[in-house]
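Entry: MFS transporter
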Amino acid sequence: MPLPYARLFEPPGTRAFTLGNLVARLPMGMFGVSAIMMIAERYGSYALAGAVTATGLAATAVVAPYTARLVDRHGQARTAVPATALAVLGSLLLALCVRLEAPAWTLFAAYALTAATPNTGGMSRARWQHLYAGDPARLHAANSFEQAADELCFMLGPVVAALLCTGLFPEAGTVTGALLLLAGILLFTAQRATEPPPHSGPTKTASPLRAPGMLPLVTVFLATGAVFGSMEVVTVAYADGLGQASAAGPVLALQAAGSCAAGLLYGARAPGGPAERRFLCCLAGMTALLVLPLLAAGTGSLPLLAGALLVAGIATAPTMVTGMGLVQARTPEGRLNEGMTLAVTGLLGGIACGSALGGQAVEHLGARAGYLVPVTAAALALALFSTVSVCARSIRARRPRQTPPAAPPTAPAASERSP
């Protein structure tokens, strides 16, 4: 492990909470693929599968900021454990409803309960911020490590989900993910030494969403999330159309693998230049690289698509690391978990929209044409942030420069005064 990452784990307790964090985050890469595969298997509709997952993610986008606010106010352990228990109940109910082939509305109701899932990645980043607030280099490495951990979980999660759903029974991925989530949160919250103190006093600062530059940034995350949501649904449908449904997880894992490797390399180097400019470059790179899966899908070759996704994933982690750095810089003090959860909420809302749009595109246009959705979403994110950046520069250029006030006139010397 490179030195910047080895130094992260010097404080006591950091290894333990990271292990719990990884166990709890692995299901985040399992739930989407598991839900899509088991619903499509039992009900024979990718549109229904995309709509159910979209509903759960949309509910999470609404509930997650309030859960994060409770975490900031009452502490991670007191809030995350009961919230996780409710989310696990929702996942198990969803698996039961699918198993019994219950009416479609029960799937939406059960999956909505998973909105209570706490933002484990945000809580982990808050711990690093608490430990390394005065060390920008280590904090940059910690943020990059967290993004690489996200990608690792999304790399392994789909593989595990696909193997469980196809090798055991369709609901196995969801049930296993729910149990791992509960175990990981219990281990994570048990590490009290690294937990940031709660801000139990009255909150005087405004919502992080009202901080300068936060609302446009969350909007960009919304468009970026649509890339991930649509890519997942379309890739599962594409592999299924080729008669290789079990290969969908490993294919999606390659995209996460490219992102994980890029994130570790990105974090090992000190960032250069303004963060806004780096974010713009990352978005441009992601948009350009996402054209590769679209082209590869037209060949009908799953191995070629897998290679294209591996390359396309290179831009994902640097984009997310830089974006999350901007969020941390713009979030008011004492609201860090809420601020980062708002960014994740934007991502989840985008994933929900992307899942629904991807499912509809597959149903009406076919899986190959469905890869137009992530490309369009990435281009929209780039256009949004470009517009915001241009407007911000224009406002700064028009703002009159403040000149120091003129010094008050000095009293005349005694010889110059009138007699």
